[in-house]
Predict the structure.
Amino acid sequence: MSSFWTDFLRNHKEKKREHNPLELLSRVPFFEEMNLHELKVVEQILHCREYQQGEYIFHQGERGLGMYIIRKGVVAVVSEPDNHELSELKDGDFFGEVALLDDSYRSATVRAKTDCTVFGLFQPDLAALIERDHRLGLKIIMRVARHACQRLRVSNEKIISLSAELALLKNSATSDLK
């Protein structure tokens, strides 16, 4: 087979995989151990949304209604009001998952850095899924909660490290003044 056709077929397979929601879902930690039937059930409640470069997906302080999985594109997670970029997320990454557990306010703003396609999974749809399939709904909620706990532990470790570093700096500054 010629190089042209080999490359064409490889690119076609990669694009097909890239646009397959089931493939994307299977790489998200909440869904990665689910069987094909469970993934198809989750796929049915996803909402595909497109955002233009510079468009806001949500703002810090808004009530959270669900999470997003990036199908294609790059987003910035930004702390307001200073516009400090906390992180950059791309294809296959997800954000806003805590909103599946409660409807508290968003802790950051998320803005599209490039044109983006994302899947949204929202509380009302998850609640309806839980009504229909308690086991699958509980499976999702438990994995989201575990992930949120893991992020909290990492944040706590960072705070402890920064607090220790700050104490050292204060001690050093006090010593320099004497």
